[in-house]
Amino acid sequence: MISLIRQLIGGNADLATVLIQIGAILYVVFCATPLHEYAHARVAVKLGDDTPRLRGRLTLNPMAHIDWIGAAMILLFGFGYAKPVEVRMRNFKKPRRDMALVALAGPVCNLLQATVYLLLYHLLSAVTSALFVRYLCVFFAFAAVINVQLAVFNFLPIPPLDGSRIATLLLPAKTYYKVMQYERYIMIGLMILLFTGILSRPLVWLSTAVFSGLNALTALPFAWIG
Fold this sequence. Notes:
The protein is mainly α. Helix content is 70%, strand content 0%. The protein is built from 10 helices and no strands. α5 packs antiparallel against α6 and α6 (131-154) packs across α10. The protein is globular and about 55 Å long. The two termini are 21 Å apart. 35% of the residues are buried.
């Protein structure tokens, strides 16, 4: 992906690339992650749990959703999270299924955002080579990459990530609640694994595979242009 970006803006524009990357990360922190959490809240309310609305989470206001530790992780590692939306399973008609659907909504929202950014990237790349547009394409590319990384990261079946909520469909309820009791300590271990690179390497590999497939798919409608 980096080689593609350098082809777009030229090999001597490293500073511009870094600045655009920082801008894309900030955009993701203040826009993409709030959309991720809003998706959780919207689906939860739709399925019968009004807790997110009562807790002020059924909003696109980024300040209601940002977790500053999770935001710092995005800046440092490209993987992170926002403030989890509080959901009460007992309010759902089918608690295990509905909880999994609520959890799934966040990463799917990130993948949809990445798809939109890649479509814009390929569209603009196909119709013009103006300098401003090339910089805009770099922004879209970085935003797409980060959204894919967030989706892959949140699919991990590790508390408090969304994958652990999806696991409610697979694990016995007693086992699930037992694991969730150690959520805080598991999160500390997760950060250590990311910081040491033990977990970040396989996450990068998975993110690259997902991004490559999504990139190839979104490029298809524009293959005939030019």
